[in-house]
Task: inverse folding
């Protein structure tokens, strides 16, 4: 079932009030499920941190001059952001669109597709920014020295989370069925995670892989988080931030275009 709207209405300008209404709706619903959602989003990356940090940390003392548990702890921030934004938005958006017809109901009000997509992405990005701090807190408890730069980590998580939430929304409008998400997880998200410098530095990869890593938005997130924790590098950080913003803008265009095609006839 789709919602029929005129071209003039579908193409209207962005309305902050409509965006805010969708965002408030998400916040209201979250009050019912925050315990289970937060548990899954926080515990899984923390397990990664403990398993890799203390498992491999027993045989690897340092990497790039950083104690391995701290190296993994800062990298796992990106893992938490990815899990809570991309994975969450893919399944949640698909269920709302295909099974619950939530967006059909929203679009019957003075709300347009781009406002729905923006609100969903910001909501998932905000949660990702919060959940991404959990591995950092655990790392501090296990010896990571606190620094003022850590206050910037939620901002990095927010930008990355919004971008990957938009990616998830786009994917949810492409797949033929909910089972197809396994292909995206295995063929796209898992490789991005493994070659982002989360568990080992990309300097150990072949030259062609180092070049390709520059196209990996998660790598730029990992680098920004580590620089926030261990010392900012202004020029490099501007480059990493620009890469994330470019990725987010591209995903926004694809997500809105595809969702509009799915929801409006």
Result:
């Amino acid at each position: 079932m789709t919602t029929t709207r005129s071209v003039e209405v579908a193409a209207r300008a962005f309305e902050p009030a409509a965006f805010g209404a969708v965002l408030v709706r998400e916040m209201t619903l979250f009050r019912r499920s925050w315990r289970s959602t937060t548990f899954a989003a926080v515990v899984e990356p923390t397990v990664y941190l403990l398993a890799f940090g203390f498992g491999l940390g027993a045989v690897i003392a340092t990497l790039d001059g950083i104690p391995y548990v701290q190296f993994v702890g800062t990298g796992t921030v990106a893992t938490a952001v990815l899990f809570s934004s991309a994975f969450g938005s893919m399944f949640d958006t698909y269920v709302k669109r295909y099974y619950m017809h939530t967006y059909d109901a929203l679009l019957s009000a003075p709300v347009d597709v781009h406002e729905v997509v923006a609100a969903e992405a910001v909501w998932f990005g905000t949660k990702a920014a919060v959940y991404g701090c959990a591995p950092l807190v655990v790392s501090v408890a296990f010896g990571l020295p606190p620094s003022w730069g850590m206050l910037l980590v939620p901002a990095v998580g927010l930008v990355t989370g919004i971008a990957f939430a938009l990616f998830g929304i786009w994917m949810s409008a492409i797949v033929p069925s909910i089972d197809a998400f396994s292909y995206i997880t295995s063929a796209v998200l898992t490789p991005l995670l493994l070659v982002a410098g989360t568990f080992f530095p990309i300097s150990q990869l072949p030259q062609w892989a180092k070049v390709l890593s520059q196209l990996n938005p998660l790598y730029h997130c990992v680098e920004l988080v580590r620089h926030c924790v261990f010392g900012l590098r202004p020029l490099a950080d501007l480059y990493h931030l620009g890469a994330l913003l470019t990725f987010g803008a591209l995903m926004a265009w694809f997500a809105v275009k595809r969702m509009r095609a799915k929801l409006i006839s």
DSSP finds eleven helices and two strands in the chain. The longest strand covers residues 62-63. The first helix runs from residue 7 to 10.
